[in-house]
Design a protein that fits this description.
Blueprint: E1 2-7, E2 10-13, E3 18-26, E4 33-39, E5 45-52, E6 58-59, E7 67-72, E8 77-82, E9 91-98, E10 102-104, E11 108-113
């Protein structure tokens, strides 16, 4: 059983910053990648950032230059530093762990007011 616990969401004004954290625990055989996806109200979940165990980091075009993903491999933790937040960044942010399959966290709400 793999468990992902997210934290760091909240309400922020446009132009502000938030830092999301996700700690993975449980029976993790190996981690191929970790990432974050966002689901805005009434829309599908979309990957915004992904950091593999080897290879290049991915960012959605909408967050490039504003969001930074990082990992602490020793702690099986992934972070998402979000700067210059915009109202369109509002949504539930889900942590992703790619191993034998995709695992998702329960989500944390991010609300950006204009």
């Amino acid at each position: 059983q793999v468990r992902l616990v997210e934290s760091g969401g909240g309400l922020v004004q446009a132009g502000g910053s938030l830092r999301l954290s996700c700690a993975a625990s449980g029976s993790i055989f190996s981690i191929n990648a970790m990432g974050w996806a966002r689901q805005a109200p009434g829309k599908q979940r979309v990957l915004v950032a992904r950091i593999p165990s080897g290879g290049s980091t991915y960012y959605a075009d909408s967050v490039k230059g504003r969001f930074t993903i990082s990992r602490d491999n020793a702690e099986n933790t992934v972070y998402l530093q979000m700067n210059n937040l915009k109202p369109e960044d509002t949504g539930v942010y889900y942590c992703l762990l790619v191993s034998d399959r995709n695992y998702w966290g329960q989500g944390t709400q991010v609300t950006v007011s204009s």
